């Protein structure tokens, strides 16, 4: 259905601990790629969306498969021109090793006490 036309070398991988990113998959975090919108295309099919107000007061839209509840990517008005792509939706089995560990952890105030920070990753208590 969707395709990343190329993964830029300047891509930022993030580890998010917001309730919304952890609730649906039932995990303690969400590993994401911040990819320029022009590098991500819908090849076929259509998406369903859900929009909510983010902490910034601007809209955050979740784009998910029309046939199942899998979130493919998120668009946040506060991050214009960027798609926040869910790593688990990529077909590359080696994508985690190829891209390395996340360089940024956001909403760390929500991280369970028993989860450690990722060494070397920038830490932010909120999303801004």
UniProtKB/TrEMBL annotation:
GO terms for molecular function: carbon-sulfur lyase activity; metal ion binding. InterPro entries: CENP-V/GFA, Mss4-like_sf. The keyword rRNA processing does not apply. Residues 11-109 form the CENP-V/GFA domain. Keywords: Lyase, Metal-binding, Zinc. Pfam families: GFA. Belongs to the Gfa family. This is CENP-V/GFA domain-containing protein. It comes from Aureobasidium vineae.
């Amino acid at each position: 259905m969707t395709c990343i036309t190329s993964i830029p070398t300047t891509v930022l991988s993030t580890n998010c601990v917001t309730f919304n990113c952890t609730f649906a998959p039932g995990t303690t975090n969400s590993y994401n790629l911040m990819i320029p919108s022009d590098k991500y295309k819908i090849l076929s099919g259509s998406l369903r969306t859900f929009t909510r107000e983010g902490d910034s007061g601007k809209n955050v839209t979740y784009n998910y498969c029309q046939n199942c509840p899998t979130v493919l990517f998120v668009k946040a008005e506060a991050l214009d021109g960027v798609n926040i792509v869910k790593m688990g939706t990529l077909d590359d089995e080696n994508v985690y090793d190829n891209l390395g560990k996340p360089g940024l952890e956001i909403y760390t105030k929500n991280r369970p006490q028993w989860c450690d920070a990722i060494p070397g990753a920038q830490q932010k208590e909120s999303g801004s």
